[in-house]
Amino acid sequence: MRTLVLIGHPDLAHSGTQAFLQAAAGALTDADEWDISAQGVPDSAEILRLQGEMRRYDRLIFQFPLYWYSMPGVFKQWLDTVWTTPFVSGRPGEAPPLAGKELGIVVTFSQAQQDYRLGGREHFSLSELLRPIAALGLAAQMQLLPIFPVAQFGYMTERERQHLLVTYAQYLSLPAGAHFADRAQWFAAWLTQHASAHSDYAAWAAALTAQQEQLADLHDTLAEMRREEDDAL
Amino acid sequence: MMDGEQQDALAAAIRQQAQQTADYVDRAVLLELADFAEAQQRRITTTGGEIDGRSWDHEHW
């Protein structure tokens, strides 16, 4: 899985939230990142090069702070310039270049997450507000990932930030629609990769995997019992 | 195979290691891992309980 995070922030250098997310991605994933606000206005040759680069990835992530209920202008301007019609819709008779790839959205904001819902302080959900991005992704025949919201990073406790760090890394790297078993595998892989750091890590990875196999066996048994009960009715 | 008590010990051991880990990222992963190991054990206990309950359902004997 090759993931590219496209970060569009008007003042990336001074964003503690973005710095935290970038550190998480750098430490725990193989994802690449582009600071699109630093790319300036690309000429036609550069646009083609950027498009070619993006095609090399399986998953693209749009990452930005919410500005007036939308992506910041710097991100929109970049999209309007680099995501040309042939790049999004494809040339006649050809599949769009991004068809089948995944599109995720990491959106940060300073309000509480529950403000963004029907009847909440902001009245609209993030799913409603970010529909233009979904429309763009669907036009490109991409598969949409669930939105990854980061609310009020500045107010988070240390434990909440630790949780964010891991769930964000998993959002970038786990398969779409990841299950509990995928997360077990992610943790076991991390322990295995870091086995030289602590003598117990390899044993913990084995225990975690064994427990997951036990859980899978139990689910199989339960499914079989349910089938037998249904057949008996 | 580990029983529930041993698995809780696993989560406790991971959490203890997290407290002794200076690296910020490693500590975060270990704390999340400890929570995950507990959640995994809860699922095993719950699913096992449902199997036991169905096995002992006299209407299906």
Question: What is shown here, in short?
Answer:
Chain A: It comes from Schleiferilactobacillus harbinensis DSM 16991. With 233 residues, chain A is of the alpha/beta class.
Descriptive notes:
Chain A: It comes from Schleiferilactobacillus harbinensis DSM 16991. Chain A: Keywords: Oxidoreductase. Chain A: GO terms for molecular function: electron transfer activity; FMN binding; NAD(P)H dehydrogenase (quinone) activity. The complex is a heterodimer of chains A (233) and B (61). Chain A is built from nine helices and six strands, in the order βαβαβααβααββααα. Chain A is of the alpha/beta class. Chain A folds into two domains: 3-178, 3-Layer(aba) Sandwich (Rossmann fold); 179-233. In chain A, strands 1, 2, 3, 4, 5 and 6 form a six-stranded parallel β-sheet that branches. In chain A, α1 (16-28) crosses α7. Chain B has a domain at 22-48. Helices cover 79% and strands 0% of the residues of chain B. Chain B contains two helices and no strands. Chain B has helices spanning 4-19, 24-55. Chain B starts with a helix and ends in a 6-residue tail after the last helix. The mean pLDDT of chain B is 86. The chains are: A alpha/beta (233), B mainly alpha (61).
